[in-house]
Predict the structure.
Amino acid sequence: MGYFDDVYEVVKKIPEGKVATYGQIARITGRPRSARVVGWALHVNPYPGTIPCHRVVNRKGELSGSFAFGGMESQRYLLEKERIKFSKEGKIDLKKYLWCPKAEE
DNA sequence: TAGATGACTAATA
DNA sequence: CTATTAGCCATCT
């Protein structure tokens, strides 16, 4: 399905202990303005065992509000399990945990 | 088929 | 800082 596959390819590459934003994935996939499509791709999430949706957050580093895994609790749990900590407001410190694909590749 | 919706972001005022 | 507009593409009605 076109663009969705690109999104999945990128999201699958997110290493443990790191998070990525929709906009970031959108740029990597070559569509800097398709952040919505990224969100939709994760929303349908056809490969829940392959797509680490919990590592994808919005630009502010917070959870997206409508999680498709079993609630944001699961997302928070999974992230904390990967050494990612949340601030009081339930946000992630992007300064430390934001994935740097350029450095990875 | 056409119009509206959605886990978003960036630019502009 | 907030509010509004536009852009993207798959899916639903």
